[in-house]
Amino acid sequence: xxxxEPINVIIQDVQPTxxxxxxxxxxxxxxxxxxxxxxxxxxxxxxxxxxxxxxxDRIEKFGITAGHIGTKAKARFAFTSTESVINGGIxxxxxxxxxxxxTFIK
Length: 106
Fold this sequence. Notes:
Helix content: under 10%
Number of helices: 1
């Protein structure tokens, strides 16, 4: 598992908490990391969008609601990745992000 440095994000969507197998609760948050801008303020890079899952007690700990949509924050993530082989030996890679910490900017 890899952990990130704080990343500047904007909350774009907050989905309702859902109950998965065995009573495990999950909330999905969509965050946007603005693309790179040059010294003149012209946008040079594309925006990154992160689909982040929050599980169990962390849902209450972070307390992210629909009221946070559009809010700027500094977020830290934990990343995991998996490799799988599908259809005739084609390798597939997936990266998932989990929210480690978030500080809202007022």
